[in-house]
Design goal:
Oligomer: single chain
CATH architecture of the largest domain: 2-Layer Sandwich
Number of domains: 3
CATH topology of the largest domain: Pseudouridine synthase
Structural class: alpha+beta
Radius of gyration: 21 Å
Order of helices and strands: EHHEEEEHEHEEEEEEHHEEH
Distance between the termini: 55 Å
CATH class of the largest domain: Alpha Beta
Shape: globular
Number of helices: 7
Largest sheet: 9 strands, mixed
Helix content: 10-25%
Number of strands: 14
CATH superfamily of the largest domain: Pseudouridine synthase
Length: 304
Protein backbone atom coordinates (compact mmCIF):
# COMPACT_ATOMS: atom_id res chain seq x y z
CA UNK A 1 0.00 0.00 0.00
CA UNK A 2 1.39 3.40 -0.97
CA UNK A 3 0.19 6.91 -0.16
CA UNK A 4 0.89 10.55 -1.01
CA UNK A 5 -0.43 13.70 0.66
CA UNK A 6 0.12 17.42 0.27
CA UNK A 7 0.27 18.95 3.78
CA UNK A 8 -3.12 20.59 4.43
CA UNK A 9 -3.23 23.97 6.22
CA UNK A 10 -4.61 22.49 9.45
CA UNK A 11 -1.59 20.17 9.82
CA UNK A 12 1.14 22.76 9.22
CA UNK A 13 3.46 22.84 12.23
CA UNK A 14 2.48 19.40 13.48
CA UNK A 15 4.85 16.45 13.92
CA UNK A 16 5.09 14.15 10.92
CA UNK A 17 4.05 11.02 12.85
CA UNK A 18 1.01 12.69 14.40
CA UNK A 19 -0.11 14.28 11.13
CA UNK A 20 0.33 11.16 9.01
CA UNK A 21 -1.67 9.11 11.51
CA UNK A 22 -4.54 11.53 10.87
CA UNK A 23 -4.11 11.41 7.09
CA UNK A 24 -3.95 7.60 7.08
CA UNK A 25 -6.54 6.48 9.69
CA UNK A 26 -5.83 2.79 9.07
CA UNK A 27 -2.35 3.28 10.54
CA UNK A 28 -1.68 3.87 14.22
CA UNK A 29 0.82 6.50 15.30
CA UNK A 30 3.18 3.71 16.40
CA UNK A 31 2.96 2.10 12.96
CA UNK A 32 3.62 5.46 11.30
CA UNK A 33 6.63 6.08 13.53
CA UNK A 34 8.10 2.69 12.59
CA UNK A 35 7.61 3.40 8.88
CA UNK A 36 9.31 6.80 9.20
CA UNK A 37 12.22 5.34 11.18
CA UNK A 38 12.62 2.59 8.57
CA UNK A 39 12.88 5.19 5.79
CA UNK A 40 9.59 4.20 4.17
CA UNK A 41 8.24 7.77 4.42
CA UNK A 42 9.66 10.90 2.80
CA UNK A 43 8.78 14.58 3.06
CA UNK A 44 9.33 16.38 -0.24
CA UNK A 45 11.69 13.57 -1.23
CA UNK A 46 13.81 13.59 1.92
CA UNK A 47 13.92 11.02 4.74
CA UNK A 48 13.23 12.82 8.02
CA UNK A 49 12.56 11.97 11.65
CA UNK A 50 9.11 11.32 13.16
CA UNK A 51 9.35 14.64 15.02
CA UNK A 52 9.82 16.65 11.80
CA UNK A 53 7.55 19.70 11.89
CA UNK A 54 5.55 19.98 8.69
CA UNK A 55 5.61 23.12 6.54
CA UNK A 56 3.12 24.43 4.03
CA UNK A 57 3.52 22.94 0.56
CA UNK A 58 5.47 19.84 1.65
CA UNK A 59 4.52 16.48 0.17
CA UNK A 60 4.38 13.35 2.31
CA UNK A 61 4.86 10.10 0.42
CA UNK A 62 5.45 6.55 1.53
CA UNK A 63 4.46 2.95 1.42
CA UNK A 64 3.57 0.15 3.78
CA UNK A 65 5.80 -2.82 2.88
CA UNK A 66 4.30 -6.22 2.29
CA UNK A 67 4.44 -8.20 5.51
CA UNK A 68 6.61 -11.28 5.28
CA UNK A 69 4.79 -14.54 5.92
CA UNK A 70 4.78 -15.34 9.59
CA UNK A 71 6.99 -18.14 10.85
CA UNK A 72 4.82 -18.73 13.89
CA UNK A 73 3.71 -22.30 14.39
CA UNK A 74 -0.02 -23.04 14.18
CA UNK A 75 -1.21 -24.89 17.27
CA UNK A 76 -4.38 -26.88 17.76
CA UNK A 77 -5.63 -25.10 20.87
CA UNK A 78 -9.27 -24.83 21.95
CA UNK A 79 -10.98 -21.65 20.75
CA UNK A 80 -14.42 -20.36 21.71
CA UNK A 81 -15.58 -18.93 18.38
CA UNK A 82 -18.60 -16.66 18.82
CA UNK A 83 -18.92 -15.62 15.18
CA UNK A 84 -17.00 -16.13 11.96
CA UNK A 85 -17.25 -15.21 8.28
CA UNK A 86 -14.86 -14.53 5.41
CA UNK A 87 -13.69 -11.22 6.89
CA UNK A 88 -13.40 -11.70 10.62
CA UNK A 89 -13.71 -13.97 13.61
CA UNK A 90 -14.94 -13.04 17.09
CA UNK A 91 -13.35 -15.00 19.94
CA UNK A 92 -14.41 -15.33 23.58
CA UNK A 93 -10.94 -15.39 25.13
CA UNK A 94 -10.45 -17.23 28.43
CA UNK A 95 -8.38 -15.72 31.23
CA UNK A 96 -4.77 -16.85 31.16
CA UNK A 97 -4.43 -16.90 27.37
CA UNK A 98 -1.85 -14.49 25.94
CA UNK A 99 -3.07 -12.77 22.76
CA UNK A 100 0.14 -12.66 20.73
CA UNK A 101 3.72 -13.96 21.13
CA UNK A 102 6.07 -11.91 23.28
CA UNK A 103 9.23 -12.60 25.28
CA UNK A 104 8.41 -15.55 27.53
CA UNK A 105 5.30 -16.44 25.53
CA UNK A 106 6.50 -17.79 22.20
CA UNK A 107 3.89 -20.54 21.97
CA UNK A 108 0.43 -21.33 23.28
CA UNK A 109 -0.96 -17.89 22.38
CA UNK A 110 -4.23 -16.88 20.76
CA UNK A 111 -2.30 -16.13 17.55
CA UNK A 112 -0.89 -19.67 17.46
CA UNK A 113 -4.42 -21.04 17.84
CA UNK A 114 -5.81 -18.69 15.19
CA UNK A 115 -3.14 -19.70 12.67
CA UNK A 116 -4.40 -23.27 13.00
CA UNK A 117 -8.06 -22.25 12.89
CA UNK A 118 -7.82 -19.63 10.08
CA UNK A 119 -5.51 -20.22 7.12
CA UNK A 120 -5.76 -16.68 5.73
CA UNK A 121 -5.10 -14.29 8.60
CA UNK A 122 -4.33 -10.65 7.88
CA UNK A 123 -0.68 -9.56 8.12
CA UNK A 124 -1.34 -5.86 8.69
CA UNK A 125 -0.77 -6.26 12.41
CA UNK A 126 2.81 -7.41 11.84
CA UNK A 127 4.61 -10.74 11.71
CA UNK A 128 3.89 -11.60 15.34
CA UNK A 129 0.34 -10.24 15.39
CA UNK A 130 -1.39 -11.48 12.24
CA UNK A 131 -5.02 -10.37 12.24
CA UNK A 132 -4.87 -8.78 15.68
CA UNK A 133 -6.78 -5.49 15.69
CA UNK A 134 -6.93 -4.98 19.46
CA UNK A 135 -5.94 -7.01 22.49
CA UNK A 136 -6.94 -8.04 25.98
CA UNK A 137 -4.54 -8.54 28.87
CA UNK A 138 -3.56 -12.13 29.59
CA UNK A 139 -5.74 -12.33 32.70
CA UNK A 140 -8.73 -10.46 31.22
CA UNK A 141 -11.38 -12.68 29.68
CA UNK A 142 -13.95 -11.86 27.03
CA UNK A 143 -14.64 -10.78 23.47
CA UNK A 144 -12.02 -9.94 20.87
CA UNK A 145 -12.33 -9.48 17.09
CA UNK A 146 -9.66 -10.65 14.65
CA UNK A 147 -9.44 -9.67 10.95
CA UNK A 148 -9.00 -12.39 8.34
CA UNK A 149 -7.87 -10.15 5.49
CA UNK A 150 -6.04 -6.85 5.06
CA UNK A 151 -9.09 -4.83 4.00
CA UNK A 152 -11.08 -5.92 7.05
CA UNK A 153 -8.07 -5.23 9.27
CA UNK A 154 -7.74 -1.65 8.02
CA UNK A 155 -11.48 -0.99 8.34
CA UNK A 156 -11.69 -2.36 11.88
CA UNK A 157 -8.50 -0.56 12.94
CA UNK A 158 -10.00 2.70 11.69
CA UNK A 159 -13.11 2.13 13.83
CA UNK A 160 -11.01 1.53 16.93
CA UNK A 161 -8.97 4.64 16.16
CA UNK A 162 -12.18 6.69 15.77
CA UNK A 163 -13.47 5.31 19.10
CA UNK A 164 -16.66 4.10 17.38
CA UNK A 165 -16.36 0.51 18.62
CA UNK A 166 -18.69 -0.39 21.49
CA UNK A 167 -16.76 -1.97 24.35
CA UNK A 168 -18.27 -2.77 27.72
CA UNK A 169 -16.60 -4.63 30.58
CA UNK A 170 -17.85 -6.18 33.78
CA UNK A 171 -15.44 -5.46 36.63
CA UNK A 172 -15.62 -6.83 40.15
CA UNK A 173 -13.94 -4.14 42.26
CA UNK A 174 -12.84 -3.74 45.85
CA UNK A 175 -14.88 -1.06 47.60
CA UNK A 176 -18.43 0.19 47.21
CA UNK A 177 -18.96 3.54 45.46
CA UNK A 178 -21.46 5.97 46.93
CA UNK A 179 -22.76 7.06 43.54
CA UNK A 180 -24.70 4.82 41.17
CA UNK A 181 -22.53 5.84 38.22
CA UNK A 182 -19.67 8.10 37.23
CA UNK A 183 -17.11 9.10 34.63
CA UNK A 184 -13.31 9.05 34.89
CA UNK A 185 -11.78 11.57 32.51
CA UNK A 186 -8.02 11.44 33.11
CA UNK A 187 -5.14 11.10 30.63
CA UNK A 188 -3.15 7.87 30.83
CA UNK A 189 0.56 7.47 30.14
CA UNK A 190 3.60 5.57 31.36
CA UNK A 191 4.16 5.65 35.10
CA UNK A 192 6.86 8.24 35.89
CA UNK A 193 9.09 5.71 37.68
CA UNK A 194 7.85 2.23 36.71
CA UNK A 195 7.88 1.86 32.91
CA UNK A 196 5.93 -1.42 33.06
CA UNK A 197 2.91 0.33 34.55
CA UNK A 198 0.49 2.95 33.27
CA UNK A 199 -0.71 5.89 35.35
CA UNK A 200 -2.97 8.94 35.41
CA UNK A 201 -0.10 10.82 37.09
CA UNK A 202 1.95 11.52 34.01
CA UNK A 203 2.95 14.61 32.08
CA UNK A 204 2.58 12.93 28.68
CA UNK A 205 -0.72 11.14 29.03
CA UNK A 206 -3.19 10.51 26.23
CA UNK A 207 -6.87 11.37 26.58
CA UNK A 208 -8.81 8.56 28.27
CA UNK A 209 -12.48 8.48 29.29
CA UNK A 210 -14.21 5.67 31.17
CA UNK A 211 -17.90 5.47 32.14
CA UNK A 212 -18.99 3.19 34.96
CA UNK A 213 -22.23 2.20 36.69
CA UNK A 214 -23.05 -0.11 39.59
CA UNK A 215 -24.63 -3.44 38.72
CA UNK A 216 -24.56 -4.91 42.24
CA UNK A 217 -23.32 -3.86 45.67
CA UNK A 218 -21.62 -6.67 47.56
CA UNK A 219 -19.74 -7.30 50.80
CA UNK A 220 -16.77 -4.93 50.55
CA UNK A 221 -16.98 -5.01 46.79
CA UNK A 222 -19.15 -4.07 43.81
CA UNK A 223 -19.84 -5.32 40.33
CA UNK A 224 -19.51 -2.49 37.81
CA UNK A 225 -20.42 -2.18 34.14
CA UNK A 226 -17.70 -0.16 32.45
CA UNK A 227 -17.93 1.49 29.03
CA UNK A 228 -14.86 2.82 27.24
CA UNK A 229 -14.77 5.92 25.07
CA UNK A 230 -11.05 5.44 24.41
CA UNK A 231 -8.83 2.39 24.43
CA UNK A 232 -5.61 3.06 26.30
CA UNK A 233 -3.36 0.35 27.70
CA UNK A 234 -4.78 -0.97 31.01
CA UNK A 235 -7.42 1.80 30.89
CA UNK A 236 -10.13 0.11 32.97
CA UNK A 237 -7.68 -1.08 35.61
CA UNK A 238 -5.83 2.26 35.86
CA UNK A 239 -8.95 4.44 35.93
CA UNK A 240 -10.84 2.36 38.49
CA UNK A 241 -7.78 2.17 40.75
CA UNK A 242 -7.38 5.95 40.48
CA UNK A 243 -10.83 6.50 42.05
CA UNK A 244 -10.27 3.98 44.84
CA UNK A 245 -12.08 1.04 43.20
CA UNK A 246 -9.29 -1.31 42.07
CA UNK A 247 -10.25 -4.43 40.14
CA UNK A 248 -10.33 -7.38 42.51
CA UNK A 249 -7.30 -9.61 42.03
CA UNK A 250 -5.29 -6.98 40.14
CA UNK A 251 -1.77 -7.41 41.51
CA UNK A 252 -0.36 -4.48 39.53
CA UNK A 253 -2.87 -1.72 40.29
CA UNK A 254 -4.89 -3.31 43.08
CA UNK A 255 -2.45 -2.99 46.00
CA UNK A 256 -2.56 -6.67 46.89
CA UNK A 257 -5.33 -9.23 46.59
CA UNK A 258 -6.42 -10.51 50.04
CA UNK A 259 -10.14 -10.31 49.26
CA UNK A 260 -9.61 -12.00 45.89
CA UNK A 261 -7.91 -14.89 47.67
CA UNK A 262 -10.82 -15.24 50.06
CA UNK A 263 -13.26 -15.76 47.20
CA UNK A 264 -11.00 -18.03 45.14
CA UNK A 265 -9.99 -15.57 42.41
CA UNK A 266 -6.61 -16.31 40.86
CA UNK A 267 -6.67 -13.40 38.41
CA UNK A 268 -8.04 -9.89 37.92
CA UNK A 269 -11.85 -9.91 37.86
CA UNK A 270 -12.26 -8.13 34.53
CA UNK A 271 -14.36 -9.44 31.65
CA UNK A 272 -14.94 -7.92 28.18
CA UNK A 273 -18.67 -8.56 28.07
CA UNK A 274 -19.87 -6.56 25.05
CA UNK A 275 -18.25 -5.85 21.68
CA UNK A 276 -19.97 -3.92 18.91
CA UNK A 277 -18.69 -2.62 15.58
CA UNK A 278 -19.73 -2.05 11.97
CA UNK A 279 -19.02 -4.99 9.69
CA UNK A 280 -16.16 -3.95 7.38
CA UNK A 281 -17.85 -5.39 4.26
CA UNK A 282 -21.61 -5.27 4.76
CA UNK A 283 -21.76 -2.11 6.88
CA UNK A 284 -24.25 -3.85 9.16
CA UNK A 285 -23.86 -3.12 12.92
CA UNK A 286 -22.62 -6.15 14.86
CA UNK A 287 -23.04 -6.68 18.60
CA UNK A 288 -21.83 -9.62 20.66
CA UNK A 289 -22.22 -10.45 24.34
CA UNK A 290 -20.34 -12.84 26.58
CA UNK A 291 -21.64 -14.05 29.95
CA UNK A 292 -19.56 -13.79 33.09
CA UNK A 293 -17.06 -16.65 33.38
CA UNK A 294 -17.49 -19.13 36.21
CA UNK A 295 -14.69 -17.81 38.44
CA UNK A 296 -16.03 -14.24 38.57
CA UNK A 297 -19.62 -15.46 38.96
CA UNK A 298 -18.54 -17.66 41.89
CA UNK A 299 -16.70 -14.74 43.51
CA UNK A 300 -19.81 -12.57 43.24
CA UNK A 301 -21.93 -15.22 44.98
CA UNK A 302 -19.34 -15.52 47.76
CA UNK A 303 -19.52 -11.75 48.32
CA UNK A 304 -23.30 -11.42 48.47
Amino acid sequence: MSFEHRVPPELVGQRLDAALAKLEPSLSRAQVRRLVEQGEVTVSGAVVKPAHRLRAGECIAGRVPEVRPTELAPEELPLAVVYQDGDLVVIDKPAGLVVHPAPGHGRGTLVNALLHHCRDLSGVGGELRPGIVHRLDKDTSGLLVVAKNDRAHRALAAQFKAHSVQREYLALVRGTPRAASGVVDAPIGRHPTDRKRMSTKTRRGRTAVTHWSVVARLRGAALLRVRLETGRTHQVRVHLASIGLPVLGDRVYGRGAPLAGEVGLARQALHAAVLGFTHPTTGVPQRFESPLPADIAAAIEALR
